[in-house]
Sequence to fold (204 residues):
Amino acid sequence: MITILSYGSGNVNAIANIFSKEGIPFEIAGNANSLANASKVVLPGVGAFDQTMDLLNESGMRETLDQLVLSERIPVLGVCVGMQVMAKRSDEGVASGLGWIDAVVKQMDTSSLDAKPYLPHMGWNSIHQRQPHRILDGVDEKRGFYFLHSYCFHSSDPANILTTTVYGQEFCSSVVAGNIFGFQFHPEKSHSNGIRLFKNFAEL
Fold:
């Protein structure tokens, strides 16, 4: 059973609609009690880093989430800011992140961009798989995914980089660290590639 976290950040309904159409069993959790029995978790995120962390901390699910991910090691998939908060901190704000991965989040370097409005990086872009993983089985790398962000993930361990994408410069567009998966792009807005990724996650 996949549990989608509903804490006030992220497009929960769009993800739930994909799972429903694909016949993937899921629940939506808005408190620690409904999260406790999760076997997989999707952590959506839209907006600013600090606001997302504030909402997550205020939801009462933070402690249970840490227990599930770090101690019980259930698979977790973070989307957009849901990926960024897996880092220790972000240049976007002052709040501490979840710290599940030794990483920081930094604003993209606009000096390498030659077309306004520079940021955010918005629209479809391809991905390059840096290491094999079945969560990307059947995904069309050239078609890629839909992006909307101005900050990107910098992992201290290159072995955590699952894919990269080029927007002026090459940046990390997804990470993997054992049971932890983070995607800077929006699978729920990426049509067949996004559906394939969610189905692969359900089958892990």
Q: What stands out?
A: The helical segments are 12-21, 32-35, 49-58, 62-71, 81-84, 191-202. The chain has a mean pLDDT of 95. The longest strand covers residues 169-177.
